[in-house]
Amino acid sequence: MPNIHNLEPGDASAEVRALYTDFQRRMGFPAPPNFIKVQGHSVAAASGSWGLVQNTLVGGVLPRTLKEMLFSAISADRNCQYCEAAHLACCRMLGVSEEDLAQLSENIDSLDPPKTRAIIRFGLKCARDPQSLTSEDFSNLRGLGLTESEIMELISMSALAVYANIVADATKVENDEMFSQL
User: For 11, 76, 137, 139, which has the most beta carbons within 10 A of its beta carbon?
Assistant: First the structure.
């Protein structure tokens, strides 16, 4: 049972309904997801979350597919069932193979290409223990051709996934049926 119930669009203010619509449209979902509806009780929380998602996940330089894969891997690692289901669905929408999706939670070391594997490993390390990142970790990313901007975006994506995991787990937001259909 959720700790905070969803604020459905019909019960939300015009400002919150507009936010739901923008979230749904930009993410490519058929409906606003429970993750944003549970936050609808607070315009500040919902707007802040949507700002992070649209600027870090949807926008930016790194491909959204890669960022969704990272989000899925971090969510699996942190055992956030809601975020893992949501971002696996996003990966499917973006054309990631079922084999690659399975590897995100079961065996990162078999993920190809090596650049993708290295980026996801870095993101997982950042999400688990950011203080353990070393100069060598950053040099490895630069050696793969990542720019400072892309590395910063990767760090921000890792932080966003952890943030979203906390929101989803603390509220006990329920999985959306649409995720199993995407």
Answer: 76
